[in-house]
Amino acid sequence: MRLGNALLLLLGSAIFSAYANDSAAEDPVAKSLEDTIFRVVETGLTSVDIMPVDNVQFDVQKCSVTSSVTCVVTSTGKDCEDLVVPIEQCRDIDMTFTYRYCSNEEQRTVQLFPDKTTALMNTLTVNGLNYSALSPKECREISTTRTIDTCKRFFSASLKVEGKRGEDFENGDYCYGWDFLRVFIKRPCKITSQVASCVVERTQETCDSLIVPIDECTTTEPMTFTFEYCNEELTPLKFRRQKFRALVETQNVAGFDLSDLDPGQCRNFPVTRDISTCKRFFSSSLKVEGWRGDSSGDYCYAYDFERIFFPRPGDPPPIPGGDDSACDVSSSVKCTITGTGEDCDDIVVPRNECNPQTDMTFEFEYCNFEESNSVNLFGGRKTIALVETLPIDGLDLSLLAPGECRTFRINRKINTCKRFFSASLKVEGRRGDGRDDYCYAYDFYRSYIDRPAITGGDDGVSGTEECDISAKVTCTVDETGEECDDIVVPRNECRIDVPMTFTFEYCSREDENSIDLKPGFTRARVETIDLPGLNFNDLQPGECRRLIVSRKINTCKRFFSAQLKVEGVRNEIGGYCYAWDFYRSYIARFSNNDSPTPANPSQDLDNMAPCAVSARVTCTLDATSQACEDIVVPLDECSENTLMTFTFEWCNFEVSDYWYIYENRTHALIETIPVDNLNLSNMTAGSCRRRIVTRPINTCKRFFSAQLKVQGLRGGRNSDYCYAYDFYRTNIARFDRDLTSQPTPALQPSPAQGPSAKCEISAKVSCTVDATGESCDDLEVAFDDCSVATPMTFQFQYCNVEQFSFIDLFEDNRTEALIETISVDDIDKTNMNPGECRTFSERRLINTCKRYFSASLKVQGLRNGTPNDYCYDYDFYRSFIQRPPGITKSPSFRATNVPSISMTPSAAPSTCIVSLAERESRIRTIINDISDPNAFLDPNSPQSRARDWLIFQDTYDVFCANACSRSGDPASAGVYQRYSLAVFYFSMNGDTDWMMCGRNSVDQCIPRLTNINNDVVPTFADNEIWLSGVSECLWGGLACKTETRCLDRIEFEANNVNGVIPSEIAQLNGLRYLYLEGAFGDLDYADGTMKFVTGTIPPEISQLSNLLILDLNYNKLQGTLPIGIYNMVQLRQLDLNHNEFVGQISPSIGNLVNLRFLQLDNNNFSGNIPVEIANLVDLVVADFHRNDFTGILPPEICGLFPPGFRLNRLSADCDPPAEIECFCCNRCFADGVAFSGILAADESSVYSESSQEVDIGF
What SS3 string covers 5-57? Predict the structure, then answer.
């Protein structure tokens, strides 16, 4: 899962804050945030997909930047996460990574920190980032292609962006965005998933046999779906829970048993759902992902998708090979050596005979095996042939007749000095006229070039199999001896300098030959810092070497990493040697101070009475029955199997309400191992439950832990969220009874551990409110009475608890006190005598309009000044400010503050209830006022399809949501806007042709939105698929005004948007920006693979009275311009270049007095250029070339150049033989190609067609 839906915010450099916005119990954002905390436990991985955060402060306008990383397989364009590679076919595969970063600031620029803004591929830096200041709303992206070894289990990429928009870090001027992509290579495992059956509850017949007359259809026909998943492997299957997904229509199905699935075992899960039989079809699916054996085994994947069509009485019988069967098309790729006809698979090329220009012939064949249906092939990048990563031109994409095959051959020069090359053919289309009858075939061809066995070759590498070498990285925490993978650090205990020991081990598994290591390529790293000390001498057969280093790690970060790469050449017989290990540990967070946000964000958090529920963990040592926290284990008596008994108790102390418990969010753990057989049925008021478990514990480690988390709903009410959590950790004390004896070498502590008796030092922070003298913990402030400057006094105390030893305090920032993120001066860092305590106070003004504030004290030093005899203590103080009951006012929250949190409008009060019948009636009434009734006579018209989608398929409640209302009429809610956009989607062939953001698009929905300089109207946007069940404001390529949720922008460029602009666009009367650019430029426009907007501009477009930019360039629009376009007086930019418009330009163009950019070039306009254009005194660019204009360009227009005015570029067909006489044009064309004249010196800075930033005079 990718990083979207969660935001990491840094306050200064040491303190993080978090806020989780749970919108509903089953909201996917909330679920992802909740699941993240336990990701390590559930999957056995040391990775998470998102980073939950703490307490976003409503009153602070946080600096907002975003970053994202995407990956596609270069040869196919498919998402890397969909790649399945059998282990026996694993190989190097080229993949393209795109790093994108944006400023979401409305007005202020963001200064990037070059040393902290980094893009990584695995842990290697990717060059090419632009570190110059980000303008408001500016986005940048870079792409790089890297060769990925798919024999490894996974790979990763990340993008971190840090900067500032000012100097006030405390109030949000620090900017941070981070995205981490980890892709697991899927292996074909013998697991299955299927939607095993579907039964109509009313009749008990199978769903696919149901025939429903349209006048008897219902939206609530109960049907029972049975999902079945099986493990046919010889080892258990461990599920990856976050990726397990069952759907009926688009709704998640919960409740599956995801405990380990034993070999040969199957599980069935039935679920009943209401299905609309007024639709023509419905669907269900089951996706299973996990690991074979354990979390380090092969990654397994299985998927099943079932679609059932409802026949109507009188429907013709299905055609054989028709809608009920898969579309039968094929694709294949073959390769031969040009001239010899030898199959490319059979070639053997000695290294010294390789040729980067070897001629090879590739044959691409694609066939339609349908008996009676033609296949309509898709263009663009959907039907495409590639050799290496270069597209092949010349494929015939006309209608593919039944039984027809087409063959296309092409010669290409291939580099046989490489070890492999590839080619592919992908075919996509539609069978017959069925818009939902999808056809797909794909073939990928890869040939590995064999090298003959050569001894004594010139490179010492050729001709032999790779040698056997290994690399491994491990890590332990110095203070506890635990593995770094196991650490759990509450946020208030994190430190920036926790000592950890990393062990880098590299071994030769060769029997006879040594390995010549390459120093330039063999390296060890912790984080991104290279380590000295590796031994680069020849590695002897069977030899292992270790490098052990201790480094201080910042556990306030969420993860850290290390890696070891070993490269060399096998001596004597040659052969390349390579091994690599990447170690990453994610630090789990658990804190009793942090409670989750209630599931319903619209509920007033301050007025909620918390549930009276509890969770508690205790532990006893079986041998002595003493509490585990009291045990003392000498190091030479420790055991890996000390039996301990853990008691997990959870209680419902409510007076009358039962507690409905979430099964998938409630669990108990000992170390990281789940405890099974918890009783998770509803708990009656006043009841308690216990689960007692005995487990062997490793007392050779310095600590162990257990935890219990219980979540649910009080009384089963969705808005009444209950949560209880307990985290139990015991540090095992050491006591050496015989101080003269030495432990055995195997148990000898490393020097980094120091003596086994812990240095005794303490740190404590407290706080009082100056005005009342009360503790800051008890502070209650009504929001109306809050102040940004409430005086408070903080007291810091630190003590040397040692009886006989002094402590030499570190004098740098390892000993420091902080209030919020501001250091406290004058802390005494001189040596502390035994038993000495020091206390000092600091008065500060605290902002009580925030919900919390914090302070901390960290003390570090050396006992008796002895190296490695380390002393440390830390106290983190956080006070949450209570709001008195009855206060409902809360700080305003604008969508643009936290753009990565989904901006779906909040749910309306629960009193909004609209029945399905009333909903349908309202929608039909409203849309009959929008569209011509004749449009609904055709069931396949865009209007009919939009109506049917809105009534029967759309899951978003436009009547009860906070949607855009027309003229403030609540009865219309968002129907006008949502329906009109659906008509636009179907008119523009969104289902069949859009490259991204359509329901069937191949590419990710990541449209670029042009930054409009100095536009201060707050808007929000996202990248959801069109017609998905969220607010239409979140569909990709759109933006809405934050205040009204009404559409502000439509923007697509080179997205295969094609068809006729519908008249319904006039309903979007708040629209200010309309971009429908058909291509990226002249070459893209001319290559013949794209589809474009056609027809004429509808006259209704003139009703968009607020439109500032109308950009329809690079399309195939025809006809004359509607007369109403000359009355759109707000227009700042009119781009109609590269179309097929005809007719004359009306003198009424002089009405557009705010116009700055006028581009009419590359059309078929005729007649004279109107003199009224001289009225456009703000004009910067005016392009008239490559048209059929005649006569003299009015000299009044020439008067718009500086000084006095702003015209910078004026073009026409004024080179001989001239069609236009123009004495002042600085761009002249003849026959569309020649150019003369003098450009304005700063033209490029004024306007650029390829720019993602436009200045239209705000």
Answer: CCCCCEECCCEECECCCCCCCCCHHHHHHHHHHCHHHHHCCCCCCCCCCECCC
Alpha carbons 934 and 943: distance in angstroms, whole number = 10
What angle in degrees, to the nearest 10, is found between the helix axes of 916-928 and 975-987?
70
Quick one: tokens of 499? 């000592």
SS (H, E, C) 878-894: EEECECCCCCCCCCCCC
- Kindly report the pTM of this predicted structure: 0.37
- pLDDT at position 159 is 92
Amino acid at 174: Y
CB hemisphere CA count around 1221 (13 angstroms): 4
Q: Are 543 and 512 in contact (CB under 8 A)?
A: no
Residues 6+ apart with CB under 8 A from 642: 621, 623, 633, 696, 697, 698, 699
Question: Residue 821 corresponds to which tokens in the numbers above?
Answer: 């993120």
Q: Are 1070 and 1044 in contact (CB under 8 A)?
A: yes
Of the candidates 189, 193, 437, which has an alpha carbon nearest to the alpha carbon of residue 304?
193
In this predicted model, what pLDDT tens digit does every residue of 719-764 receive, in sequence order?
577 778 888 878 787 654 333 333 333 233 333 333 346 678 989 9
| pLDDT at 54 > cutoff 60 | no
CA distances from 228 to 193, 325, 1108 (A): 6, 22, 55
Length of the chain: 1258
User: What is the rounded CA–CA span in Å between residue 885 and residue 780?
Assistant: 10
* Omega of the bond leading into 1217 within 30 degrees of 0 (cis): yes
Over residues 249-301, the pLDDT tens digits come to 878 888 899 888 988 899 999 999 999 888 777 888 898 888 877 555 677 87
The whole-angstrom separation of Cα 348 and Cα 416 is 10
Q: Which residue has the tokens 């969104």?
A: 990
- Please state, in angstroms and rounded to a whole number, the distance separating the CA atoms of residues 8 and 731: 31
53 contacts 19 by C-beta, under 8 angstroms: yes
Asked whether 440 and 430 are in contact (CB, 8 A), the reply is no
Euclidean distance between CA atoms 92 and 97, whole angstroms: 15
Q: 3-state secondary structure string, 342-373?
A: CEHHHCECCHHHCCCCEEEEEEEEEEECCCCC
Widest CA span in the chain? 110
User: How far is residue 354's CA from residue 1071's CA, in Å, rounded to a whole number?
Assistant: 60
pLDDT tens digits for range 907-952: 333 346 677 788 888 889 889 888 998 999 998 999 999 999 998 8
- 577 strand-pairing partners: 568
Reading the block at residue 998, the tokens are 């359509």
In Å, how far are 380, 877, 1162 from 282, measured between CA atoms? 29, 55, 47
In the structure encoding, which two tokens stand for residue 937, read together? 């006579």
Whether the Cβ atoms of residue 1128 and residue 1149 lie closer than 8 Å to each other:
no
Burial class (CB in 10 A: 0-12, 13-18, 19+), 47: middle
CA distance 443 to 362: 13
Number of Cβ atoms within 10 Å of the Cβ of 142? 16
Q: How far apart are the first and last CA of the chain?
A: 39
Distance in angstroms (rounded) separating the CA atoms of residues 1190 and 1221: 8
Peptide bond preceding 1203 in cis form (omega within 30 of 0): yes
Residue 400: other Cβ atoms inside 10 A = 25
How distant, in Å, are the alpha carbons of 84, 218, 224, 972, 1014 from that of 280?
33, 12, 18, 27, 48
Instruction: Give me the chain's average pLDDT, please.
Output: 78
Taking only the tens place, the pLDDT of each residue in 1048-1096 is 999 988 888 999 999 999 989 889 999 999 887 777 787 677 889 999 9
Question: DSSP assignment of 665-727, as one string?
Answer: T-EEEETTEEP-----SPBPTT-EEEEEEEEEE-TTSSEEEEEEEEEEEETT-TT-EEEEEEE
- Whole-number Å distance between alpha carbons of 442 and 385: 10
Tokens standing for 890? 């809360």
